[in-house]
Structures are given as structure tokens and as C-alpha cells.
Amino acid sequence: MQASREREQRAWAVKVIKRFIKGFMSRKQPVSVNNAEYLTFVRLKENLPKNLLAMNTWLTPPSIMQQVY
């Protein structure tokens, strides 16, 4: 049971890594099925705050999610 679960997890990881590599190789081409996830990851990575304590680097949350004082 444990071995089959680990095999499935390893197979899933291989698929994810292969998709990421294909996306990286086709990153300069127009958005397609191969590179859409990679480009989304890169955009997300660029928008993350550089420092957790610097509040000016955080994105502004939607108005529905802002806490009311």
C-alpha cells in the first residue's frame, strides 16, 4: 500500500517537472498549453513581497477581504 502510494507520488512529480521544463523551454513563444503554467508561476514569483515585514511591497487585497476597524 505504502509503496504504491509513493510510486504514484513520484510519477506525479515527474509529470510536474517535465511540464515545468517544457514551459521553460518554450517561455519566449506565445502563450500555449505547454508554457501557460510556467508563465503563471513566473508572474506570481515576480509579485511576491521581497521582505515579509515591508508592508509596502504587499499587493493590495480586494476590498471584500480588507478588515474593517
Strand and helix layout:
Elements: H1 2-25, H2 36-47
Helix pairs in contact: 1-2
Q: What overall form do the CA principal axes indicate?
A: extended
Strand elements, count: 0
Order of helices and strands: HH
The helix fraction, in percent, is 40-55%
User: How many helices in DSSP terms?
Assistant: 2
As a whole number of angstroms, the C-alpha radius of gyration is 18 Å
| Average pLDDT level | 81
Q: How large is the share of residues in beta strands?
A: under 5%
Low-confidence stretches: none
What would you note in describing this structure?
The chain is mainly alpha-helical. It has a domain at 18-43. Helices cover 52% and strands 0% of the residues. Helix 1 crosses helix 2. The longest helix is centred in the first third of the chain and has 24 residues, at 2-25. It is extended. The model has no long low-confidence stretch (mean pLDDT 81).
